[in-house]
């Protein structure tokens, strides 16, 4: 009896997935069928936060009486564009899009043609003049927090030119505009130490993301952990062979863990790992912060970002001329308008505040409800 119920449920789930074209959830919702449809297009599932972002966006939209349809591009821009096309066909009135790369621009111009508003979610949609709104965190500050964390973790203020510290750099995907801001925020903190001669960069050493050739060498296409792990392994037997690294600038947690894995396989770092930064407050990294293997992460409460995005969506759909979002500031009001520059126009960019997490406050993302009880149990975070 119990078994047949399980089988029936599995069949029903499969059928509804099939009917909704492989989306993560059906188009139907508890809201009335007359309410407007919000289409949600998320980029990938390798980095866990994007799964959470999608689920939060859907529930925030439904909470406010909208219908919501959630799609995930699984790291494939062609697929994401098809999904956006389907959302438009289904009559979505507004799209929330976390892009993969600027190949998304054609799908966004289709939305503009259909007079469907688009909110670029967390990542700016580059090379497009066909949308008006962007909501994200203060990405420059994310990088500053990473830089400050590394300074503290290495005790860099006590270093001397005779006895300098050694660092190596990793950046995020060059297809993701955020990766440039993260890096520039971090080097804005680290560069003065390099100039004083107390910090040495091992391997490629761009001063800013505008050192394009050098930046490409430290960038991690698609934010893929295997790429970072391979690069770290090569560094350890190559450029970093004759030094002991004190720190690694890692742009997010998924890559931080891949880098730490490579270090752990090297006898030189068996007793003392380099100080490694991160981002996203992933449960697996919180566990490593708790145990001291990863030094810090940056907590971006994506539940709050999703809520803010839907508050913005609600005002846009209601025709409010200058929407305001509680808890977010306009980038232009704090001199960071470049965050909203698509290369073709400057969109209204709303910024939320990221939070620094170390061994002192690793529980904060759990208290905020960002980490689920299942994740707490699975990662020994009690
Ligand atoms: C960025 C995002 C980061 C991280 C990364 C990898 O755009 O801002 O938080 O998740 O993508 O997916």
From TrEMBL:
<dbReference type="InterPro" id="IPR028082">
    <property type="entry name" value="Peripla_BP_I"/>
</dbReference>
<feature type="signal peptide">
    <location>
        <begin position="1"/>
        <end position="19"/>
    </location>
</feature>
<feature type="domain" description="Periplasmic binding protein">
    <location>
        <begin position="39"/>
        <end position="319"/>
    </location>
</feature>
<keyword id="KW-0732">Signal</keyword>
<dbReference type="Pfam" id="PF13407">
    <property type="entry name" value="Peripla_BP_4"/>
</dbReference>
<dbReference type="GO" id="GO:0030246">
    <property type="term" value="F:carbohydrate binding"/>
</dbReference>
<comment type="similarity">
    <text>Belongs to the bacterial solute-binding protein 2 family.</text>
</comment>
<dbReference type="GO" id="GO:0030288">
    <property type="term" value="C:outer membrane-bounded periplasmic space"/>
</dbReference>
<dbReference type="InterPro" id="IPR050555">
    <property type="entry name" value="Bact_Solute-Bind_Prot2"/>
</dbReference>
<dbReference type="InterPro" id="IPR025997">
    <property type="entry name" value="SBP_2_dom"/>
</dbReference>
<protein>
    <submittedName>
        <fullName>ABC transporter</fullName>
    </submittedName>
</protein>
């Amino acid at each position: 009896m119990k078994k047949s119920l399980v089988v029936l449920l599995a069949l029903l789930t499969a059928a509804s997935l099939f009917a909704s074209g492989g989306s993560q959830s059906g188009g139907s919702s508890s809201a009335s069928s007359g309410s407007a449809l919000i289409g949600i297009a998320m980029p990938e599932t390798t980095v866990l936060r994007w799964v959470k972002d999608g689920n939060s966006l859907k529930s925030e939209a439904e909470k406010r009486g909208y219908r919501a349809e959630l799609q995930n591009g699984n790291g494939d821009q062609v697929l994401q564009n098809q999904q956006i096309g389907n959302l438009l066909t289904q009559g979505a009135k507004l799209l929330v899009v976390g892009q993969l790369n600027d190949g998304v621009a054609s799908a966004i111009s289709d939305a503009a043609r259909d007079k469907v508003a688009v909110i670029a979610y967390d990542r700016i949609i580059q090379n497009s003049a066909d949308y008006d709104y962007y909501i994200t965190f203060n990405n420059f500050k994310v990088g500053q927090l990473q830089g400050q964390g590394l300074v503290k973790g290495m005790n860099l203020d006590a270093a001397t030119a005779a006895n300098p510290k050694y660092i190596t750099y990793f950046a995020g995907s060059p297809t993701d505009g955020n990766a440039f801001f993260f890096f520039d925020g971090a080097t804005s903190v680290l560069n003065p130490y390099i100039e004083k001669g107390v910090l040495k960069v091992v391997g490629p050493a761009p001063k800013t993301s505008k050192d394009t050739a050098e930046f490409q060498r430290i960038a991690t296409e698609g934010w893929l952990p295997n790429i970072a792990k391979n690069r770290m392994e090569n560094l350890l037997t190559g450029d970093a062979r004759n030094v002991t690294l004190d720190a690694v600038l890692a742009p997010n947690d998924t890559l931080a863990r891949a880098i730490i894995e490579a270090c752990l396989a090297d006898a030189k770092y068996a007793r003392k790992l380099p100080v490694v930064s991160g981002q996203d407050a992933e449960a697996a990294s919180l566990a490593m912060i708790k145990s001291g293997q990863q030094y810090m992460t940056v907590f971006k409460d994506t539940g709050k970002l999703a809520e803010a995005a839907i508050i913005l969506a609600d005002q846009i759909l209601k025709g409010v001329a200058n929407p305001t979002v509680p808890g977010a500031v306009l980038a232009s009001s704090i001199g960071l308008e470049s965050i909203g520059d698509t290369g073709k126009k400057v969109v209204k960019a709303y910024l939320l505040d990221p939070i620094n997490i170390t061994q002192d406050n690793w529980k904060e993302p759990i208290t905020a409800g960002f980490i689920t009880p299942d994740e707490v149990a699975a990662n020994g975070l009690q």
